[in-house]
Design brief:
The protein has about 150 residues and is α+β, with helices and mostly antiparallel strands. The protein contains three helices and seven strands.
């Protein structure tokens, strides 16, 4: 799964709550390839026709095979663990609002912004908005993290 960092901010390893600033934001981009879709199908075991049969999808008003909603949460997991906050956190809550379907060959832009910070509890809340190549919102939600380490050794 190739995720591209779009924002100009360099990758930073956040080791403490103090390192993370309110309103810090980052943008990522990913193309939903057939391989990525099929890999998720294999992992999840979901072979339902809405995700596997083009004729079924077209008969039901979709232009292409519909992407797996929970593939988005997998993509977010990689971003959270590898880029921001970067593997020093425990995800306590993720809200998921799937606004509209996405499809194989779509390019998704993922906008993440720190909207709340509680230093004493080591909690941060981020907003997540995902748009397709037509700038239509397909997903939004919030994530609450508890940072677990002050220093990585």
């Amino acid at each position: 799964m190739k995720i591209i960092r779009v924002s100009k901010i360099k990758k930073k390893n956040f080791h403490s709550i103090e390192d993370i600033k309110l309103n810090y934001s980052h943008i990522f981009k990913i193309r939903i390839t057939r391989k990525l879709h099929n890999d998720f199908s294999f992992l999840s075991g979901d072979k339902s026709p809405i995700h596997s049969n083009l004729n079924f999808c077209k008969r039901n008003g979709y232009k292409n095979i519909v992407g797996y909603a929970f593939l988005i949460t997998c993509i977010l997991s990689k971003i959270y663990g590898m880029y921001f906050p970067g593997g020093t956190e425990l995800c306590l809550k993720q809200t998921c609002n799937f606004k509209r379907p996405f499809f194989i060959k779509d390019t998704l832009k993922i906008f993440i912004k720190v909207i709340q910070k509680n230093i004493s509890a080591k909690l941060i809340t981020v907003s997540v908005v995902i748009k397709n190549q037509n700038k239509k919102v397909i997903f939004d939600g919030e994530t609450i993290f508890q940072l677990k380490l002050n220093e990585i050794k």
